[in-house]
Amino acid sequence: MLLQIDFKSGKPVYLQLVDQIRYAAASGGLRTGEALPSIRPLAEELRVNRNTVAKAYAELESQGVIETIPGKGCFLRENNSQFTRSARDKILTKEIDEAVVAAHHLQVDRDAFLALVKERLDSFERKVKEAK
After folding, report:
1. pTM for the full model?
2. pLDDT at residue 132 above 90?
């Protein structure tokens, strides 16, 4: 599972982790019973405080997304269903709309915006391949 933190986004890091793990669980990127990364190694990898990762995991547990088994770690719970195509489209549309509005305010034209999107997709795909 590839997690990325944007320290400039203004959104708390633990909530970024919560959202990414929830999306991975709902989309099938994480399977029921699959272990989440341990807190300390994940914190080191992301270069964040261990308490930040622990807070994200506590939030996910309170939402019923994961369960903690003492001495073994955190695991994805069974009750996570995959998003339907329309639900995924709705989530992505919201995120894309925010990026489009930001580009408009920054006076980025359509071609430059699309080129940047393609560059970011390529960069993400390279990171995914490197992580495997």
Report:
1. 0.64
2. no
Residue 123 to residue 35: CA distance in whole angstroms: 27
- Decide if 39 contacts 56 (C-beta within 8 A): no
User: Which residues pair with residue 74 across a beta bridge?
Assistant: 68
Tally of CB atoms within 10 A around 129: 8
Fold of the domain built from segment(s) 13-76: Arc Repressor Mutant, subunit A (1.10.10)
Residues with Cβ within 8 Å of residue 88, at least 6 apart in sequence: 27
pLDDT tens for 13-72 read: 999 999 999 888 877 788 888 899 999 999 999 999 999 999 999 999 998 889 999 999
Q: For 73, which DSSP code?
A: E
Cα angle 107-4-80, degrees, rounded to a multiple of 5 = 110
d(CA 88, CA 110): 24
Longest dimension (CA), the chain: 53
Residues of the chain with CATH 1.10.10.10: 13-76
